[in-house]
Specification:
The protein has 80 residues and is mainly beta. The protein has one domain. 11% of the residues lie in helices and 42% in strands. The chain is built from one helix and five strands. Strands 4-1-2-3-5 form a five-stranded mixed beta sheet. The N and C termini lie far apart (29 Å).
Length: 80
C-alpha cells in the first residue's frame, strides 16, 4: 500500500522565477524558489541520493504576476 503523496504547486511568476509549494494531504511543507533552469534540475531530482525525479502528475502548474513570499531564487521556507 502506498502512503500519502506529496503534491507540488508550481507558480511561474512574471519575473521568470518558479515558486514551488509542497503539500501532503493539504498540509503545507516547504516553499522554495528556483530560476527556470534550476527548477528543471530540481524536478530531475538526485536519484543517486534517493531523491526524485518528480512525477509530472504530482505537479500542479499555475501562473501569477508575483508571489508574496519574499523569497529569492535558491531560498526556502518551511511551512509557508
Amino acid at each position: 500500500m502506498e502512503g500519502p503523496r506529496m503534491v507540488f504547486s508550481v507558480t511561474r511568476t512574471d519575473d521568470g522565477l518558479v515558486h514551488v509549494q509542497n503539500t501532503v494531504m493539504g498540509l503545507r511543507g516547504q516553499h522554495h524558489v528556483h530560476t527556470a533552469e534550476e527548477f528543471g534540475r530540481w524536478a530531475d531530482g538526485a536519484p543517486d541520493r534517493g531523491i526524485g525525479p518528480v512525477d509530472l502528475c504530482d505537479i500542479q502548474e499555475l501562473r501569477a504576476a508575483a508571489c508574496d513570499c519574499g523569497l529569492a531564487a535558491g531560498e526556502m521556507r518551511t511551512g509557508r
